[in-house]
Specification:
The chain is an alpha+beta fold. Among the domains are: about 100 residues; about 70 residues, Sandwich (Immunoglobulin-like), CATH 2.60.40; about 180 residues, Jelly Rolls (Sandwich); about 140 residues, Jelly Rolls (Sandwich), CATH 2.60.120.260. Helix content is about 25%, strand content about 30%. A nine-stranded parallel beta sheet has the order 12-11-10-9-7-3-2-1-13. The chain has a six-stranded antiparallel beta sheet with strand order 45-29-46-51-48-49, with no helix packed on it. A six-stranded antiparallel beta sheet has the order 32-31-33-39-35-36. Helix 4 packs parallel to helix 6, helix 6 crosses helix 12 and helix 10 packs parallel to helix 11. The longest helix is centred in the N-terminal third of the chain and has 30 residues.
C-alpha cells in the first residue's frame, strides 16, 4: 500500500493522471509532435497512447513513424510522463494493419454456419444430422483463437517497438480484439482443442449450438467455455507474457463488454481475459447510464488478481457540447465501481477533414476550454489515486451467470437469455442500494484461482464471507463443488430470491447514492456518488473529514450533505472528533438585463452548403460533406467547383476566410480571383486563415473554390473494402478532402427567421442566417441567439452594480458553458467548472459602486456540429451524425435531416 501524502493529494503524481488516446491521424512532423506533448504536460496529463488512426498520412510502422515515436518516448522521459504504444493501425487490434490477415486463410477470421442438407465445398467442416456445417471467412481480420496467429501479430507489431525502444516505452495498448462479430466463431484449431479438452468429437455436437436437441446444454456450456478460455489464453495471456518478459506493461480492452448476450459471440466472456493485463481496461462511450456490469466485471477481476489500476477509455461519442460537469458524472459513475485511470477519447493530432468527425468530442487543444482542463484532470486524478492505492476488502461475492447465458444462446431466438441478464442487473442493483461492497466471480477464473478455506470463499487475492447466487440455469462442476464445500463449512450462501433480505451496510440513509470505500494507514476513505441526475439529501454514518477533490485539502464534516445532480463526496474517517461550525449566510446577487461585451474571441460563420459542379456539370445545392463521396464515385481525376453564398447586412472591418488545405484550391470572391494569403490558424493548426474583409460587400456574397480532385487507386480500393469490415474503415484516409469553410472575425452571426426550441438545451434556426455588425451588449440568456450562432471561445461580460451589503455570492445555472470565471472590481474571485455553481464574492465587493465580470468559455459544438440532425442535439455523436446522404460513414443509411441549424444554448441564469 503506497503511503498517500498531503503533497500527493494536492498534486497527484503522473502515474495516476489521465493517459489519452493521442490520435496520430495526419502527416506526422517531429516538431509538431514535441509541441503537442508540451501541451499535454501543461494540461496535467500523465502520458499518452500513440494511436494510429484514420487520416494517417505517414507510413504506419515506417521509419518516419518510428522517428516520431522516438520524440514521444524521449519527451516523456524528460517530463516524467508515460509514453505508450498502440498496437494497431485503427482497430480492432490483431490484424497488424493488414499484414497478419494478409498471410492467408489460416490467419483469417471465420464464422460457423449451418444449412439444411448435405454438400461438400472447400469450406465444409462436416455433414451431420441432415445439416451441412461450413465456415465463412472475413479476410480483413484474424483468427484470435489460434495462438500461432497471435504469435505472428506479436512478431510483426510488438517486436519492432521493443527492438527500437526497449523498456523506454511504458507499455502497449490493445483495442477491441475479438473472436467474432457475425455469429458463432470458427477456427481451424477448434475441433482438436475441443477433443483435447473434453475427449469428444465436436462435429457430432455442432447442431446443439443452433438447436435445442438432446444434450444441447452440455455442449453449449463446453463450447463457449472453450472459446472464452482459448481467446483469453491465445490472445491476452500470450501478449501479456511477452510484455512481461520484455519489461513492458500490457493494457487495453475487449470489444462489446456491456452485457452477457453481446459478449458471447465477441469474446465468449470478458473476465477470463482481464487477469492477463497489467492494467485491465474497458470502454464507456457516450453520455449514458446503463448497467454497471462492465465496470464491476473489470474491477472485480483486477482486485482478485492484484492489479491496482483499472483503465477506462471514455468520452468518445459524447459530442463537443459535453460539459465538465457531465464529464465528471461519466467518470464517477465508473470510479465508484472500481475504475481509477482515465483514457480520454480523443486527442486528434489534427481536425482536418474526416478527423473532425471521429467520434467527438475533441479532448484537446482545439477546444476553447483547453487552458482550464488541468482543473478537471487533477480532480479526477485525486480520486483515481485514492481508489488505486487504498485497500479494498469486499466480503461479498456475486457469482457471474455467464454459463446460463451460454446455454440459452443459439445465435437466434436466445430464449431466456435476457431473463438472466435482467436478473443479474437486479442483483447488482439491490446490492448497490444496500451499499454492500461486492465482487463478481467468473467461473473460468474460479477454475484458475478459487478455493475454500473454512467458511471463507477465496478467489486469488480476495476473501469472501458471503456468496450470492444469481438467477441461473447451471454452473460448472468446479463451481458446484466449491459452493458445496463452502456451505458445508458454514459459509453464507444467499439465493437470488432471498437477496432482498440481506442486511444493508448502514453508511448513509439514501439508497440512490452509490458507495465504495478504501482502507489506508491512519484513515478510511468513504466515497459516495449521486448518479441520479436529481438532488439528494443524505445523512452519513461514516466519515469526519470532507476531502475537496478540487484542491486536495480536507475540512471538518458533521454528517449531512445535499448532493447536486451528478455530484459526489469523498469522506475520510480519521477517528478524530469534529464540531459543526456555523457560517454566516451570503445573499445571492442577481443582475438581470444587458451586459457589456468587454472582450470576445473571434466569432464564426459556417459555410457548409454549396452549389456543386463536377467537370462543369451542375449537381445542385448539396451539403459539403456529400461532395467527397460524389467526387470519389467517378474513380478518376475530376474538376470540382463549390460555390458558397452568404449575406452580409453589414461588412465587418475584420473578417477572415478559414480553409483546410487552401493550397489545393483556386479561389474566387464575388467574381474576382482571390489569392489566399495565410495569416495564421483558427482553432486547429490545419484551419488556415486569410484576410477577406476588403473583398466583401453589403448584401449577397459568393466564394468559389475549384480543384482537381483525384485519389490514388489504393484509396478507391480501400473505400470498397471499408464497406465490408471495420478494420479497413478505421484506418481509411484520403489524398484530397473537401470540407466546410468558415468566416471568422469581429461580427455577429444571426438567424433572420428566429428560433425553434428543441430538447437537450438546443434551438434550431429558422430561415436565412447572415452576418451583421458586432454586438456591444447581450443578455445572459441565450447568448447564441444574439449574434453568436457558431461561436467557439471565451467572452468576457461586465455589469456595474451598487452594493449596500457586501456579504454577497453568485448562484446560477448554466447551459453550453464549460468554464465560468467570476471577477469583481478587476480581481478574480472564482473559476467554476461544475456544481455547485456558486461564487463567494464577498471579499471583493465594496460598498457603493462595483463592477462584476463574468468570462464564459464554451466548446466546439456550435462551430463543428452536428448541425442538421432532424432530432436536434445528439448525445451519441459519430461520423454518421454529419452526413445528409447515405454514405460510407453512416453505413449507407441517411439520417433524418434538417437544412436549418441546430445550435446548443449558451446561457447563464442567476438564482435568487
Amino acid at each position: 500500500m503506497t503511503k498517500i501524502t498531503g503533497k500527493m493529494l494536492e498534486n497527484p503524481p503522473k502515474k495516476y493522471r489521465p493517459v489519452p488516446f493521442w490520435s496520430w491521424n495526419e502527416k506526422l512532423d517531429k516538431t509538431e509532435t514535441a509541441r503537442q506533448i508540451d501541451l499535454m504536460d501543461k494540461a496535467g496529463l500523465g502520458g499518452y497512447f500513440m494511436h494510429a488512426r484514420g487520416g494517417l498520412l505517414t507510413e504506419y510502422m515506417g521509419d518516419e513513424w518510428f522517428e516520431n515515436v522516438e520524440i514521444g518516448v524521449s519527451e516523456a522521459q524528460k517530463r516524467g510522463m508515460y509514453a505508450w504504444a498502440y498496437d494497431e493501425n485503427g482497430w480492432p487490434s490483431g490484424f497488424g494493419g493488414g499484414i497478419v490477415n494478409g498471410l492467408g486463410i489460416k490467419y483469417q477470421q471465420k464464422y460457423l454456419r449451418m444449412e439444411e442438407g448435405e454438400k461438400q465445398t472447400e469450406h465444409t467442416i462436416c455433414n451431420r444430422d441432415g445439416y451441412h456445417f461450413y465456415y465463412e471467412i472475413n479476410p480483413f481480420y484474424v483468427d484470435t483463437l489460434d495462438k500461432n496467429v497471435v504469435a505472428e501479430f506479436i512478431k510483426r507489431i510488438y517486436q519492432p517497438y521493443y527492438d527500437r525502444f526497449g523498456g523506454r516505452l511504458e507499455g502497449i495498448f490493445t483495442d477491441e480484439p475479438q473472436v467474432s462479430r457475425k455469429g458463432i466463431p470458427w477456427s481451424f484449431v477448434l475441433a482438436d482443442e475441443y477433443f483435447k479438452e473434453y475427449g469428444e468429437n465436436l462435429c457430432d455436437r455442432l447442431v446443439h449450438l443452433f438447436k435445442k436437441t438432446d444434450g444441447y446444454e452440455d455442449t453449449r456450456k463446453k463450447f463457449w467455455r472453450l472459446i472464452a478460455k482459448l481467446f483469453s489464453e491465445s490472445y491476452s495471456k500470450q501478449i501479456f507474457e511477452w510484455c512481461d518478459k520484455h519489461g513492458l506493461k500490457f493494457t487495453g480492452h475487449l470489444v462489446l463488454e456491456d452485457n452477457m448476450r453481446i459478449q458471447i459471440n465477441a469474446n465468449g466472456a470478458v473476465m477470463p481475459s482481464y487477469e492477463y493485463y497489467h492494467i485491465p481496461a474497458m470502454d464507456w462511450l457516450g453520455r449514458r447510464i446503463s448497467s454497471p456490469l462492465p465496470q464491476i466485471q473489470v474491477a472485480s477481476a483486477a482486485r482478485q488478481t492484484g492489479k491496482k489500476q483499472v483503465l477506462t477509455e471514455v468520452f468518445g461519442l459524447c459530442g463537443h457540447s459535453v460539459s465538465f460537469a457531465e464529464l465528471r458524472w461519466i467518470v464517477e459513475w465508473q470510479t465508484v465501481r472500481g475504475v481509477n485511470l482515465l483514457c480520454p477519447h480523443l486527442e486528434g493530432y489534427s481536425l482536418r477533414g474526416i478527423r473532425k468527425r471521429d467520434y467527438p468530442p475533441a479532448m484537446y487543444y482545439q477546444q476553447p476550454w483547453w487552458g482550464d482542463y488541468e482543473m478537471f484532470t487533477s480532480a479526477m486524478s485525486r480520486i483515481g489515486m485514492l481508489l488505486a492505492e487504498g485497500g479494498a476488502e469486499f466480503d461479498t461475492l456475486l457469482i457471474h451467470p455467464q454459463t446460463s447465458a451460454w446455454i440459452t444462446f443459439d445465435n437466434g431466438e436466445n430464449e431466456g437469455l435476457e431473463y438472466y441478464q435482467d436478473a443479474l442487473d437486479k442483483a447488482i442493483s439491490v446490492l448497490e442500494q444496500k451499499h454492500i461492497l461486492f465482487d463478481l466471480g467468473d467461473e473460468i477464473m474460479m477454475e484458475r484461482h478459487a478455493r475454500v478455506d473454512g467458511n471463507t470463499f477465496i478467489i486469488g487475492n480476495q476473501r469472501y464471507k458471503t456468496v450470492v447466487l444469481p438467477a441461473h440455469k447451471d454452473f460448472f462442476e468446479n463451481t458446484k463443488n466449491l459452493l458445496a464445500q463452502f456451505e458445508k463449512n458454514g459459509g453464507k450462501i444467499v439465493r437470488f430470491e432471498d437477496i432482498e433480505n440481506l442486511a444493508e451496510n448502514r453508511v448513509c440513509d439514501t439508497a440512490e447514492i452509490t458507495y465504495t470505500k478504501r482502507e489506508f494507514d491512519g484513515f478510511t476513505m468513504h466515497y459516495f456518488v449521486n448518479s441520479t441526475g436529481k438532488e439528494q439529501k443524505c445523512k452519513f454514518f461514516a466519515g469526519n473529514k470532507k476531502f475537496d477533490i478540487m484542491t486536495g485539502k480536507t475540512e471538518d464534516f458533521c454528517g449531512e450533505y445535499t448532493f447536486a445532480p451528478t455530484d459526489s463526496i469523498v469522506l475520510f474517517d480519521t477517528g478524530e472528533k469534529t464540531e459543526k461550525t456555523e457560517e454566516e449566510p451570503l445573499e445571492n446577487l442577481v443582475l438581470n438585463g444587458e451586459w457589456e461585451i468587454k472582450k470576445a474571441d473571434e466569432n464564426a460563420f459556417v459555410l457548409d452548403f454549396c452549389d456543386l459542379y463536377i467537370d462543369g456539370k451542375s449537381y445542385g445545392r448539396v451539403h459539403i460533406n456529400s461532395v467527397q463521396q460524389i467526387a470519389c464515385g467517378f474513380k478518376k481525376r475530376v474538376n470540382v467547383k463549390c460555390v458558397f453564398d452568404f449575406v452580409c447586412d453589414a461588412v465587418p472591418d475584420e473578417i477572415f476566410l478559414v480553409c483546410e488545405t487552401p493550397e489545393k484550391f483556386k479561389f474566387t470572391v464575388n467574381g474576382a480571383e482571390y489569392k489566399f494569403c495565410d495569416v495564421g490558424n483558427y482553432i486547429d493548426i490545419s484551419f488556415r486563415k486569410s484576410d477577406i474583409s476588403k473583398h466583401l460587400k453589403t448584401g449577397g456574397n459568393v466564394i468559389e473554390t475549384e480543384c482537381d480532385f483525384v485519389q490514388r487507386d489504393e484509396i478507391y480500393e480501400n473505400l470498397e473494402k471499408s464497406r465490408i469490415f471495420e478494420s479497413e474503415k478505421n484506418k481509411l484516409t484520403y489524398d484530397n478532402e473537401i470540407e466546410a469553410m468558415y468566416l471568422v472575425g469581429n461580427f455577429s452571426a444571426k438567424a433572420r427567421g428566429g428560433f425553434e426550441k428543441l430538447d437537450k438545451n438546443a434551438v434550431r434556426t429558422k430561415g436565412e442566417i447572415y452576418i451583421d455588425a458586432p454586438q456591444k451588449c447581450v443578455n445572459l440568456q441565450n447568448i447564441e441567439q444574439q449574434g453568436f450562432l457558431f461561436f467557439a471561445g471565451k467572452i468576457t461580460l461586465a455589469k456595474k452594480f451598487d452594493a449596500k451589503n457586501t456579504n454577497l455570492k453568485l448562484k446560477y445555472t448554466a447551459h453550453g458553458i464549460n468554464v465560468c470565471e467570476v471577477g469583481v472590481n478587476g480581481k478574480s474571485a472564482s473559476k467554476i467548472i461544475w456544481h455547485p455553481y456558486e461564487a463567494d464574492i464577498s471579499p471583493y465587493v465594496k460598498e457603493g459602486a462595483n463592477e462584476l465580470e463574468i468570462t464564459i468559455t464554451n466548446n466546439l459544438r456550435n462551430l463543428l456540429g452536428p448541425h442538421h440532425l432532424k432530432a436536434g442535439e445528439s448525445y451519441s455523436v459519430g461520423p454518421a451524425s454529419f452526413f445528409k446522404t447515405a454514405d460510407l460513414w453512416n453505413h449507407f443509411r441517411a439520417p433524418e435531416w434538417d437544412d436549418n441549424y441546430c445550435i446548443t444554448e449558451t446561457s447563464v441564469e442567476f438564482k435568487k
